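Comment thread on ticket #2218

A.B. wrote:
> Attaching the input chain for the structure job we discussed in standup.
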Amino acid sequence: SVFGFADPNSSSVAKGESLKDTIKMVSGYADVVVIRSPKEGAAKAASLYSDVPVINAGDGGHMHPTQTLTDLTTIMHLRGSLDDMCVGLCGDLKNGRTVHSLITALARFKNIKFYLISPRELAIPHYMIDYMNAHGLRHVEVTNLDAVIPQLDVLYMTRIQKERFTDMASYERNRGVYILTGRKLEKARDDLLIMHPLPRVNEIAVEVDDDPRAVYFQQARYGMFIRMSLLKTLIAQGRKAPEKVPVGTLPVCHNSRCITQTELYLPPLTEKVNGVECCAYCGREIYPMENIADEDV
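C.D. wrote:
> Ran it. Output below, let me know if you need it in another format.
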């Protein structure tokens, strides 16, 4: 059976319950905990206090691992390989957790090149650029989809995410900037894979649905099977012995979207990523306060 809540107001969270206490309670009832949160690093934080496996179903604009498993399965099944690809990532690359996750995963494969297609306001974050550089991933930032579509083996469209905007004027400027149409696809390869994590808004015209290169509904179906497989694997692991977690006092991460900014008891965990000290929750580089970039506040 499945139980849970989508609206925190229907749970004890609305009464001020901490993430730690929520996870302690839920993991006592369940064999697996699946968490989606607007806070970056929430799943990592949850894993510290759960006696059962935790699945990250999306943590803010950070990562979305189960979508990435879906994406990799789709490409592998339809293309036969995850090596030697030119991948176009198009849309909101600043806030798009599916994009960040996919880049991280494809770093494990050979000869990958990314075209990062976005408005300048929604460009890929600096920490992801640093990640690609550190892993030798070739990438080109562009604003024009038409100019690069002939080069692509995979086109990964994403929606402009209204819920991530605090400035609605900025959202209105950007929401219709990329719309994939049949005419645009006349320049594309015959074996192109057109993917989308869904839901779409208007970034892919309905006419494209009948193009054999459009695989986003197949992609969604593969996602069901990959998540079933993941659940089966994790349930078989059983419970782990509770571990003592040190209590933090102040966060060392200055990313305002990081879970450590609201759950102040979390231990200030960091990790080295290619020699750079990063927050173990949200993955952002740990900067001195005076060097914090605008995107981190």
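A.B. wrote:
> Thanks. Noting for the ticket: The first helix runs from residue 19 to 29.
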